[in-house]
Amino acid sequence: MEFLQNIWSHPRTSAAGLLIGIVTIAGVLSQQGITLGNAGTGTVVSLIGAIAAALLGMLAKDPGEPMGQQGGGSTGGQAKLGVWALIALLMPLPFLGGCSATTVARNIVDWTPALESAVASVDSVGAVFSPGDAPVFAAATAGFDAAAGLLTAQAKAYLANPSASTLAQMQMQVVVLQQQVNGAMLQAARIVNPASQQHALAAIQAVGTVVTAMLVLVQSVSSKAAVAQMSAASTVKISAVLPLVDQKRAVEMVAAHFGEPVVVAEIQVARVERVEMAAGF
Predict the structure, then answer these.
(1) To 5 degrees, how large is the angle CA 95–CA 110–CA 98?
(2) pLDDT, tens digit (0-9, with 9 covering 90-100), for 202-236
């Protein structure tokens, strides 16, 4: 009875504890290769974990309860809940990678149609710019077709044979394309016409969103030494282009790719950005 009374007296804290437990268990199951079946392009376990994390984030933002309802007052209770939410969200979440090289390879290949489509859109967007802006955009995106085509071929080869040599090629090529995208974003920001600049940034960002997703997947099956080597080759950092990124557009792309709620995609995008910047990209 005391247990039930405690739940009744502190519903938000109890709910937070339950959600933290769900996130933790989902992460462990995913790491052990237990999926409980497929949900869209992901697994049931990853979907449950992501939804629980999203609900925990929303719960932590709810208005505080009246003073004295949670020991130490509403401010103390809200702060504690926010800390627990942060701890849960910083745990390794299943949607950041696969549990095996084969799963990761399949996820990378699943992104290749989106990469090909984004690069094709870059080519078509370049044709509508004014004579003054077109050369800037063309120069900024000149290497996209070749680099994206090579990365797509390597991803498919890695799925067919997840070998160390193929992985090494992907490690190098994904950084090459990432650097081209980051550099292109900075160059496109110099376009004077505001409308042209926004079109250019949006087209380049679509490529960048896919490349970042592929980068974090390649990173998840790479050694610490390989990741350090990749980040050292990444001279134009994500932090330099982040102010130019339309976060809403990135979230919408991720949500559409996985067939998931936007609130879940927001957590994914934010987590990937933190992981990549912490790794030196």
Answers:
(1) 30
(2) 999 999 999 999 999 999 889 999 999 999 999 99
Nearest Cα to Cα of residue 88 among 52, 38, 140, 119: 52
| Alpha-helix runs per DSSP H in 189-261 | 194-220, 224-233, 238-241, 247-258
Give the separation between CA 182 and CA 109, rounded to whole angstroms: 22
Place of tokens 């000149």: 142
The position carrying tokens 């960048």 is 208
Distance CA 126, CA 139 (A): 10
d(CA 165, CA 121): 31
- The domain spans of the chain are 2-96, 101-278
Please state the pTM of the whole predicted model. 0.67
For the chain, what is the radius of gyration of the CA atoms?
A: 21
Query: Count of CB atoms within 10 A of residue 231's CB?
Result: 18
Q: Which amino acid is at 264?
A: V
- Maximum average pLDDT range among 13-27, 79-93, 147-161: 147-161
Q: Quick one: DSSP state of residue 39?
A: E
